[in-house]
Specification:
By secondary structure, this protein is of the alpha+beta class. It has one helix and four strands, in the order ββββα. A hairpin with a 6-residue loop joins β1 and β2. The longest helix has 14 residues. The relative contact order is 0.15.
Length: 65
């Protein structure tokens, strides 16, 4: 996460924030929950897919893809 611009949160080592993209990520085991705008979520999805084999289970919100 640090390699793609995220900083570990103060509240715990599994909480990350990217201030340039206003993205927040919580990691629990091998599950990621990501909060952000549509373009930033798409960016995160692309970046994480370049590095790891991932499955996307869904997206909540008015612009679901």
């Amino acid at each position: 996460m640090n390699d793609i611009g995220f900083v570990s949160g103060i509240s715990g080592p599994c909480v990350f924030y990217d201030k340039h993209r206003d993205l927040r990520v919580v990691v629990h085991g091998d599950d990621f929950t990501v909060l952000g705008g549509v373009e930033d979520l798409d960016w995160f999805r692309k970046r994480i897919s370049q590095r790891f084999e991932v499955k996307f289970r869904g997206r909540l919100g008015p612009d679901k893809n």
